[in-house]
Amino acid sequence: MATREATWDYRDRHHERFARTYFRSFGNCVVSSVGVGTYLGDPTDAADEDYREAIVEALESGINVVDTAINYRCQRSERVVGEAIADADVDREAVLVATKGGFVPFDGERPADPGQFVREEYLGTGLVDPDDLVRGQHCIAPDYVSEQLDRSLENLGLDTVDLYYVHNPETQLESKSRDAVYEQLEETFTRLEERAAEGDLRHYGVASWESFRVADGADSYLSLPEIVSCARAASDRAGTDATHLRAIQLPFNVFMADAFTVESHDGAEGPQSALWFANEAGLDVFTSASIMQGRLATEMPGSVEAKLDGETRAQRAINFARSAPGVTSSLVGMGSPDHVAENVAAGTFEPLGASAFDAVFE
Question: What cellular component GO annotations does this protein have (predicted)?
Answer without folding.
Answer: cytosol
